[in-house]
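FORM 12-B: Structure-to-Sequence Request
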């Protein structure tokens, strides 16, 4: 029997002045990567060759889509530059369009620098918003996946002062449903979720804020009525205790740091960023450009390796689901 072809994974190089180039080279030198997918780095071949020369890393022949969006000689490791922000954006768009055309099965992104994007006049605060906008996706959410802890977010890259006003029943329900769908795919069974409150002690029945009773609890009740196993709203300071995490598959958080702090404490080197709700599979490393160690061979490829493996797993799952749906219509 012929083996199923491995999923084709586009890996964007990220900000060229950061650790993205060396992470790509390191990851593609690992035999385990090619065992699960057909990888292709979307970026600058010249920059990859220069980083490889400095660090003694092999160039991945046949696994680079060369898009020379920035002159290699202009890139200074660890330096903010608008040209690098524009190049990172170009590589993302190239990989995204290839995935939308069906030429690849998933996109994995290396870290970009938000300030470099802004310097280049690109108005997206991060990958999540960029992918959602470019694919015309209305219902989307950020998830950070790891074996010790998985979290998703109702709000992401906004000021803490703006969080309360951004919370709506619809948005919370969307995030719960998207999280349930993804974790059910990953676990192969109905997901079990916990939902954090916003305020200390989850509001203490309105003593410290009314968002729990007015917005969060009603969204949870609707999710339960739709068959999603959900507990909450939980006090954020106890939602991540081991006893709680042992009986749930993911925790839905109201804002960025509510989930990122416990996640990075437990799984900094293995967490994977996933954008939920997109028409394509997109995963990413869960760390920044690390300008302070860029091009020095010190970057840990663990998060990228986990992101590639999860993207391959989700791409295969999505293909199986699509095949079943097609069979059902015949």
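FORM 12-B RESPONSE
SEQUENCE OUT:
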């Amino acid at each position: 029997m012929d083996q199923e072809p491995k999923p084709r994974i586009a890996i964007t190089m990220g900000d060229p002045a950061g650790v993205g180039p060396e992470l790509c080279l390191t990851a593609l030198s690992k035999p385990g990567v090619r065992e699960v997918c057909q990888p292709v780095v979307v970026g600058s071949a010249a920059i990859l060759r220069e980083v490889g020369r400095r660090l003694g890393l092999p160039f991945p022949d046949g696994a680079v889509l060369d898009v020379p969006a920035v002159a290699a000689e202009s890139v200074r490791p660890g330096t903010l530059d608008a040209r690098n922000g524009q190049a990172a954006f170009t590589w993302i768009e190239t990989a995204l369009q290839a995935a939308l055309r069906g030429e690849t099965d998933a996109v994995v992104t290396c870290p970009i620098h938000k300030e470099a994007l802004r310097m280049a006049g690109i108005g997206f605060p991060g990958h999540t918003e960029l992918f959602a906008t470019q694919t015309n996706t209305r219902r989307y959410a950020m998830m950070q996946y790891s074996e010790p802890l998985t979290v998703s977010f109702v709000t992401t890259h906004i000021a803490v002062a703006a969080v309360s006003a951004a919370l709506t029943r619809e948005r919370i329900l969307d995030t719960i449903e998207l999280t349930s769908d993804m974790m059910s795919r990953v676990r192969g069974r109905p997901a079990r979720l916990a939902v954090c409150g916003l305020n200390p002690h989850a509001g203490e029945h309105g003593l410290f804020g009314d968002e729990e009773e007015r917005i969060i609890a009603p969204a949870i009740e609707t999710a339960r009525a739709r068959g999603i196993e959900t507990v909450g709203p939980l006090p954020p300071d106890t939602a991540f205790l081991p006893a709680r995490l042992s009986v749930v598959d993911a925790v839905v958080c109201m804002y960025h740091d509510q989930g990122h702090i416990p996640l990075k404490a437990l799984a900094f080197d293995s967490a994977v960023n996933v954008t939920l709700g997109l028409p394509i599979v997109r995963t990413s490393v869960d760390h920044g450009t690390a300008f302070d160690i860029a091009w020095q061979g010190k970057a840990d490829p663990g998060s990228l390796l986990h992101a590639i493996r999860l993207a391959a797993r989700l791409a295969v799952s999505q293909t199986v689901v699509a095949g079943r749906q097609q069979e059902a219509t015949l």
